[in-house]
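One chain given next:
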Amino acid sequence: MAQTKRKRQTKHRGNAAGVVEARGRTGRKPEAGEKQKPDSRQAKLDKLNNPPTWRSATIRSAIATVIFVALVLVAFKQPAAAAAGLAAFVFLFYIPLGYYTDLMMYRRRMKKQGLPDATKTAKPAPRKKG
């Protein structure tokens, strides 16, 4: 008589509550460099605590312009010449808009955290005559 094929049983059979717990690391021990993962939350905070730059505003404006042009061409079925003219306007309009929006958010965040604002330049102390 032929045997029936049985599915292999896994080693994770669960506990009394029915919860299957995964086993820990079974291979080699991690080295010191592998143990420390960069904290993504801290990396995000570090990035947010940097003042905005014109370069980042320009990149964001370029991405928004590409999306805008695609929308104008596909959804509104406008000619390419009209889309190019609008693209130039949108690109140049979004750069300062994005920069000053980022600057406002950055200053608000710095004020809330009680940290000094790196975008404001310190005024030099007045010279004494004499």
